[in-house]
Amino acid sequence: MHNDHQSNDASASKRHQYQDLITIFDRLFADSFNTRLIKGTDEPVYLPAGHGAHYAQVVFAHGFYASALHEIAHWCLAGDKRREKEDYGYWYCPDGRNAQQQAEFEKVEVKPQAIEWAFCLAAGKSFQVSTDNLNGAEPDREGFRDKVQQQLKDYLLYGFPPRAQQFIDGLKEFYQTDPIPSKSCPVDLHVV
């Protein structure tokens, strides 16, 4: 049984390759938004055109599939003016946040993580919320997950931002997954 589990893990990792996300993203957005998905070697960052390239760059961390999905979710939410600024002009407080900083972090992370969850559903991949504060105040992980889940339900009922929907459709086409219900939220949202 241990070997079966290992082969399933290997199969899943072969199925979800960051290179596929680059291909899907670039096919959908490289021309229409002059934006490319880039595997980074350090922390994730968004760089508008003119910051090292003639195109905007959604840079994700270390080739991690989940990082790519998360950074794409942020990009899908950013408006025109935000996409003209490095990291969309937002302040980021790194790991080690106090309780107030963590509450602010979680407040702005609900929508991107709900979109990331939808991306995972579309790719047939499990999703895990990230409170991203290992060395700071203890987060209310379940409470945060509930907020993200409620936002996902709202998106399913009322629609996703257009670029997010476009990427969801691209993922579903590539991975040949079942449609994500739009009128009601699925009972099992694949929380890990």
TrEMBL record:
Keyword tags: Elongation factor, Protein biosynthesis
InterPro entries: EpmC
Name of the protein this chain belongs to: Elongation factor P hydroxylase
Pfam families (UniProt xref): EpmC (PF04315)
GO MF annotations, alphabetized: translation elongation factor activity
Superkingdom of origin organism: Bacteria
Originating species: Neptunicella marina
